[in-house]
UniProtKB/TrEMBL annotation:
GO cellular component, one term: membrane
InterPro entries, A to Z: DPM1-like, Glyco_trans_2-like, Nucleotide-diphossugar_trans
Name by which UniProt lists this protein: Dolichyl-phosphate beta-D-mannosyltransferase
Keyword Transferase carried by entry: yes
Organism field: Flavobacterium faecale
Keywords: Glycosyltransferase, Transferase
Domain of life of the source: Bacteria
Length: 241
């Protein structure tokens, strides 16, 4: 039994899924993987099922009936992982924008360090992003500046999606009250963690844009993030977060 589970949400990731699974499960640390697939038309889930026979007891699949958003996928995965008593619960993309070799850095920050939430940060030591167009880098960087201004969190990469939570954090946060499903979900989770006085540590990583498959970013996701931060701040002020 491993104490670590890596949650990987998928929608049409057939080009990446086998490689990312093999890379995570080949790490020195014994990680388990939970893939949460939103009924991908490209049959991503079918590939996971095939690989489960090879990685029995280490690779798990939850298949949902329709595309329902990143946030709900992670909340589903958090509840699944808490029920099975994993101590360290990771978020990770399927497209290799997050390097599996960095998983152990996040684990070490929580297990050996004092972090309750370890963030794989693109901006804590400058701008460590590869293959993104300049407008995307600027949008992401200044989104985190905006979040710091509104919320008071001293986090350089508030929108990061490569993180490790101690189980206690997710047990304390009221997961059924998580509102956002897109880009703002990552901000909301960090703000709820921050508001409950948990220790947050940023671990520098290099983020590399996907080379296979299509990005899920959209204008509606960005709008949700911009206005969502303000609503989170008001909830905190009125003790309803």
């Amino acid at each position: 039994m491993s104490d670590c589970i890596v949650i990987i949400p998928t929608y049409n990731e057939i080009e990446n899924i086998e490689s990312i699974i093999r890379s995570v499960l080949s790490q020195h640390k014994n990680f388990h993987i939970l893939v949460i697939d939103d009924n991908s038309p490209d049959h991503t889930a079918d590939k996971v099922v095939v690989l489960q026979s090879e990685f029995e007891g280490r690779l798990f699949l939850e298949k949902r009936m329709k595309k329902a958003g990143l946030g709900t996928a992670y909340v589903h995965g958090f509840k699944w992982s808490i029920a099975r008593q994993y101590d360290y619960i990771f978020e990770m993309d399927a497209d290799f924008s997050h390097n599996p070799n960095d998983l152990e850095k996040l684990y070490n920050a929580c297990h050996f360090g004092d972090a309750d939430l370890a963030i794989g940060s693109r901006y804590v030591t400058g701008v460590n992003v590869v293959n993104w167009p300049l407008n995307r880098v600027l949008m992401s960087y200044f989104a985190s500046v905006y979040v710091r201004m509104i919320t008071g969190m001293k986090i350089h990469d508030a929108t990061a999606g490569f993180v490790c939570y101690k189980r206690q954090v997710l047990e304390t946060i009221k997961l059924d009250k998580i509102k956002f499903v897109g880009y703002a979900f990552q901000i909301e989770m960090k703000y709820r963690t921050f508001s409950r006085k948990f220790q947050i540590t940023e671990v520098p990583i290099i983020f590399t844009d996907r080379t296979k498959g299509q990005s899920k970013m959209s204008n509606s996701i960005i709008v949700e993030a911009v206005f969502g931060v303000i609503s989170l701040r008001f909830k905190k002020l009125f003790n309803t977060l």
